[in-house]
């Protein structure tokens, strides 16, 4: 008699969804993938080649509700009708991270936080790779975790974890967890309750044991307040810019000092490619994570000095007539802009604006007053920016054209100044996404360089 296979339904046919479908199929599940949008050609082809049934442009409820278990894309909100119906029927809904973690014995290093996740994740991965470790990069970045578990045998995975991924993780266990910061973000997904978002971030601690390591930024008031409540059982390694915790990591007299309890490592901050206090925190946390899995000082030094950050994060975009252009298009909230402005050492022409996310700019006022000589508002509706800063900045200019923003930035700058695109807003009013905004900015700078040469 033929035994009926359990049905794994995958909601969402992007990188993580297709990877989850392949892994579930390989592990003996009947698989059905459903995406309410059109699939990308490459993903459709993979599903067809592997004979995985799928639908696009709709969710067929009758079929989905037959699932034994559902893997949900992190982009699908809890309030989506199909998710609500799955909950009503007590059908388990998990993330791709949860699924993939069942089928690997690798050590998992999970990084979360409202800001700095991607930089820190890439740096941890680079440090381990430089040290010669057999390591994969996944989560909210890179290739599908599930597909890598299927196709590779890595000893370590470095995982960037968004709050949405953490929400659907239950049994997954991080051997090393990093929590960088928690500031209000994505509150529309958390019933506009900040505590719900805080709880989500702290899920990175679930299932950790005393043999595991929890690295966190000690000066984050939210983290400090929550630690006594959550009572983590893992070994605690704090990161600080003001204290000298041992073991832990801190900044002292211009040096990064990192001590996991087994060895100490020091290096001069000025010699490293990442700038700004926020990146000092990222580097301290990443180096501490690498050190805690055995990476030696020589490899740490080499890795830190050779690291190149992802695009659109304080990315040099070129110099024109001695004026520096920096692309920080990924700075889609006020907190990120604070870090960007804080790291500037020259007068700034600041390009900001876009689709407002309920921003309050009070925390930027002192930095803007100190460092910003002109504000260029790049957006369809700049009223809030104009209202906040018209009495603070000497020059304020509005445009909806990125080329005009770059031209005006050069016009307002003196040699040695910096034109900084750090929008504090979403990009969807004028651009497809923050990547498109950053790419168009870089292209505009490149055109200017070609003309002025």
Automatic annotation (TrEMBL):
Task: Select a single GO molecular function from the record's annotations and give it.
Answer: UDP-N-acetylmuramoylalanine-D-glutamate ligase activity
A single Gene Ontology CC term: cytoplasm
Sorted alphabetically, the keyword list is: ATP-binding, Cell cycle, Cell division, Cell shape, Cell wall biogenesis/degradation, Cytoplasm, Ligase, Nucleotide-binding, Peptidoglycan synthesis
- Catalyzed chemical reaction(s): UDP-N-acetyl-alpha-D-muramoyl-L-alanine + D-glutamate + ATP = UDP-N-acetyl-alpha-D-muramoyl-L-alanyl-D-glutamate + ADP + phosphate + H(+)
Residues annotated for ATP binding in this entry = 113-119
Q: What is its main location?
A: cytoplasm
Q: Where is the Mur ligase central domain?
A: 111-290
The cross-references to Pfam families, in alphabetical order and at most eight, read: Mur_ligase_C, Mur_ligase_M, MurD-like_N
Keyword check for NAD: no
- Any GO BP: cell division
InterPro entries registered for this protein in UniProt: Mur-like_cat_sf, Mur_ligase_C, Mur_ligase_C_dom_sf, Mur_ligase_cen, MurD
- Location(s), subcellular: Cytoplasm
- Which EC class, in a word? ligase
- Cited Gene3D superfamilies: Mur ligase, C-terminal domain, Mur-like, catalytic domain, NAD(P)-binding Rossmann-like Domain
The EC number(s) given in the record are 6.3.2.9
Please report the stretch or stretches of sequence annotated as the Mur ligase C-terminal domain: 312-425
Annotated pathway, please? Cell wall biogenesis; peptidoglycan biosynthesis
> Which family, according to the similarity comment?
Belongs to the MurCDEF family.
Q: What does this protein do?
A: Cell wall formation. Catalyzes the addition of glutamate to the nucleotide precursor UDP-N-acetylmuramoyl-L-alanine (UMA).
PANTHER family linked:
UDP-N-ACETYLMURAMOYLALANINE--D-GLUTAMATE LIGASE
Q: What is this protein called?
A: UDP-N-acetylmuramoylalanine--D-glutamate ligase
Can you name the source organism?
Larkinella rosea
Its ancestry begins with:
Bacteria, Pseudomonadati, Bacteroidota, Cytophagia, Cytophagales
Tell me the name of the encoding gene. Answer: murD
